[in-house]
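Progress note, sequence design subtask.
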C-alpha cells in the first residue's frame, strides 16, 4: 500500500534525476519508468586552487570527513586503525566530524573505546567548517569513506577529487561507482575492518601507488555543466507539454 501511494504521487513528476547510476537502477527496479529518470551527477564549483601536497616521505596520512554514525562506518575505520596500531604500521588518521552525541549510547561507547585503543595513531579533530576544507586537505594524503550503507553519490568523494586526493572506500553502491578500484582509489570489503586494514597498509607502504592513483583522478562534474544540463532538460519538458497547453488555451 505504501509503494502504491508513493508511486501515485510520483506519477505527477515529469522527470527524475539520479546522482548515480547505482541509485537510478534501484528506482528502475522499484518501478519508475526508464523514460522518466536519468543520471545527472551533482555539479560542483571548481576550487580556485587544489590543496597543495606536503613534502612527505610516506603517503601515510588519512582523513575521515562526515557525520559520526553507525551507517557512515566510522567504527569500521577505527577497528582497522586499531589493527594497524597493534601491527605498528606507520599511519595516522584524522577524524573530522560531529554529532556523535545524537546516536545510541552503545555506538558512542564503542566509538570511544576504539578511539582510546588506537592511541596516537588517530586524532579526533571534531567538527569543521567547510571553508576550512582546503587547509585540512593539505595535511592528508588519502580520504577514507567507510560507509556500511550503499550511499547515493557521496559529496566527500567529489571534494577529495577536487583536491586531487585518492579515496579508499567501501566496495558497494555509489562509492564503488565513483571510485575506480586501482585507478583513482582503492576498495575494501564493506563493513570489514580487517579488509580495510589490509588496503590501508598496502596504500601507505607502496612508494608509487599514491602518485599513480592521484594522476588518474577524473575531473569533477562542474556546476556550469550541471546547470546547462538542467536547463536543457527543463526546456525539453516545456516543449513536450506545449501542444497540450496550446489546446487548453484554444478551448
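Output:
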Amino acid at each position: 500500500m505504501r509503494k502504491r501511494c508513493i508511486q501515485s504521487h510520483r506519477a505527477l513528476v515529469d522527470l527524475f534525476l539520479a546522482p548515480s547510476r547505482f541509485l537510478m537502477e534501484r528506482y528502475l527496479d522499484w518501478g519508475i519508468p526508464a523514460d522518466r529518470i536519468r543520471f545527472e551527477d551533482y555539479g560542483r564549483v571548481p576550487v580556485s586552487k587544489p590543496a597543495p601536497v606536503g613534502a612527505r616521505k610516506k603517503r601515510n596520512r588519512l582523513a575521515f570527513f562526515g557525520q559520526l554514525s553507525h551507517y557512515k562506518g566510522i567504527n569500521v575505520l577505527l577497528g582497522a586503525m586499531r589493527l594497524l596500531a597493534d601491527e605498528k604500521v606507520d599511519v595516522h588518521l584524522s577524524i573530522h566530524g560531529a554529532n556523535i552525541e545524537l546516536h545510541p549510547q552503545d555506538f558512542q561507547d564503542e566509538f570511544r573505546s576504539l578511539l582510546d585503543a588506537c592511541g596516537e595513531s588517530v586524532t579526533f579533530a571534531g567538527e569543521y567548517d567547510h571553508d576550512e576544507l582546503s587547509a585540512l586537505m593539505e595535511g592528508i594524503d588519502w580520504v577514507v569513506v567507510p560507509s556500511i550503507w550503499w550511499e547515493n553519490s557521496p559529496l566527500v568523494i567529489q571534494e577529495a577529487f577536487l583536491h586531487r586526493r585518492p579515496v579508499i572506500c567501501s566496495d558497494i553502491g555509489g562509492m564503488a561507482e565513483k571510485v575506480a578500484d586501482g585507478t583513482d582509489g582503492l576498495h575494501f570489503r564493506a563493513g570489514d575492518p580487517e579488509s580495510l586494514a589490509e588496503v590501508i597498509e598496502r596504500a601507505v607502504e607502496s612508494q608509487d601507488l599514491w602518485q599513480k592513483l592521484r594522476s588518474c583522478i577524473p575531473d569533477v562534474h562542474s556546476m556550469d555543466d550541471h546547470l546547462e544540463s538542467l536547463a536543457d532538460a527543463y526546456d525539453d519538458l516545456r516543449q513536450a507539454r506545449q501542444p497540450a497547453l496550446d489546446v487548453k488555451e484554444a478551448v
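The mean pLDDT is 93. Work on this subtask will continue into the next period as scheduled.
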